[in-house]
């Protein structure tokens, strides 16, 4: 079992990355192998228009991790009412249909506003359904992210951390049941 946690932005110092790192730690604490796939580490060559026809070799490690994962947790911020373009582009660059077809997916939204990235999560759900992914129903939306994190970048609200722990436990079981294996 391997869960890949996708940090859905390439913004330096992002709060999304801080939350994704905490989610990774939650999976480890529960005994589920997980790793953080950070879009800030995408190779610059992937943004060359020629990448649509032939992916650069440096993108292979991203592709391989997604293909090998038993489940993906997509942690997305809300930028201008939607998911970051880099996240959609990343999905577009993955092999189709094998990357997400029948792949268990879970979503966490992170936003400064009151709705906790509901709009980008809902849009990503549409994409996931179109690609025939197995979507875990327990989404976690984190509103007011600037107030939600302490000075070390960890979530302050114990109830919110508990919801992430419950999501991790439930998603690991869901991925084991609904994965491709």
Question: Overview of this structure, please?
Answer:
There is one protein chain. With 181 residues, this protein is an alpha/beta fold. The protein has a single domain, classed as Rossmann fold (3-Layer(aba) Sandwich), CATH 3.40.50.360. Helix content is 39%, strand content 16%. It has 6 helices and 6 strands; from the N terminus they run E-H-E-H-E-H-E-H-E-E-H-H. Strands 1, 2, 3, 4, 5 and 6 form a 6-stranded parallel β-sheet that branches. It is globular and about 45 Å long. The model has no long low-confidence stretch (mean pLDDT 96). One of its GO terms (molecular function) is FMN binding. It comes from Termitidicoccus mucosus. Residues 1-143 form the NADPH-dependent FMN reductase-like domain. This is Flavoprotein.
CATH superfamily: Flavodoxin domain
The count of β-strands is 6
Outline the biggest β-sheet. 6 strands, parallel
Number of domains: 1
Alpha-carbon Rg, integer? 15 Å
Helix content: 25-40%
SSE string:
EHEHEHEHEEHH
Mean pLDDT: 96
Shape: globular
Distance between the termini: 10 Å
Q: Tell me the name of the CATH class.
A: Alpha Beta
Count of helical regions = 6
Tell me which CATH architecture applies here: 3-Layer(aba) Sandwich
At the third CATH level, what is the topology name?
Answer: Rossmann fold
Proportion of strand residues: 15-25%
- Low-pLDDT segments: none
What structural class results from the helix and strand content?
alpha/beta
């Amino acid at each position: 079992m391997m869960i890949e946690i996708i940090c859905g932005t390439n913004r330096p110092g992002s709060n999304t990355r801080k939350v994704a790192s905490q989610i990774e730690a939650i999976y480890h604490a529960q005994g589920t192998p997980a790793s953080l796939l950070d879009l800030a580490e995408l190779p610059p060559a992937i943004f060359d228009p020629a990448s649509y026809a032939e992916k650069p070799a440096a993108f292979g490690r991203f592709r391989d991790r997604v293909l090998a994962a038993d489940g993906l947790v997509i942690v997305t911020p809300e930028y201008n009412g939607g998911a970051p373009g880099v996240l959609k582009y990343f999905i577009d660059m993955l092999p189709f249909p094998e990357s997400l077809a029948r792949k268990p997916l879970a979503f966490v939204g992170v936003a400064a506003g009151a709705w906790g990235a509901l709009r980008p999560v809902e849009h990503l759900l549409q994409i996931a359904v179109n690609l025939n992914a197995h979507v875990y129903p327990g989404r976690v939306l984190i509103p007011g992210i600037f107030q939600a994190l302490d000075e070390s970048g960890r979530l302050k609200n114990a109830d919110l951390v508990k919801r992430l722990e419950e999501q991790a436990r439930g998603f690991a079981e869901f991925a084991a049941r609904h994965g491709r294996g």
